[in-house]
Amino acid sequence: MKGDRVEIVIDAGGTTRTYEIEATRAGRRVDVTHGRGLVEVTETTRGGTPVRTARFMSGRVLALVEHPASRFVLDDDEPVTPLRRSA
After folding, report:
1. What CA–CA distance (Å, rounded) separates 66 from 73?
2. Domain span at residue 34?
3. Residue 14 to residues 26, 39, 47, 60, 68: CA-CA distances in angstroms?
4. Overall domain count for the chain
């Protein structure tokens, strides 16, 4: 969804670097995959075609934060009830 973004913080040898991948147009989404020592963040179209991709060594990734696009509150939205801890 347009506005979704993923923020990646990596260790760059004594300092940190921050990268952001964002869904820049309507209908695009940001996918995160990880495996075999790599973290891959891809912006894709509705049809699944990758627009841009960022790959990072998983050993260097300090934080990966997904920020969903903000949406407006609608009149018919129900209030969210908090989860209760079971005994």
Report:
1. 20
2. 5-67
3. 38, 20, 40, 11, 30
4. 1
Which residue(s) pair with 26 in the sheet?
none
Assigned domain for 78 exists: no
- Could you report the per-residue pLDDT of 63-74, keeping only the tens digit for each? 998 888 777 667
State the residue for tokens 């990596």. 10
Q: What is the pTM of this model?
A: 0.71
> Where is 16: in which H helix or E strand?
strand 16-22
Determine contact, residues 54/8, Cβ cutoff 8 Å. Answer: yes
Q: pLDDT above 90 covers what percent of the chain?
A: 44
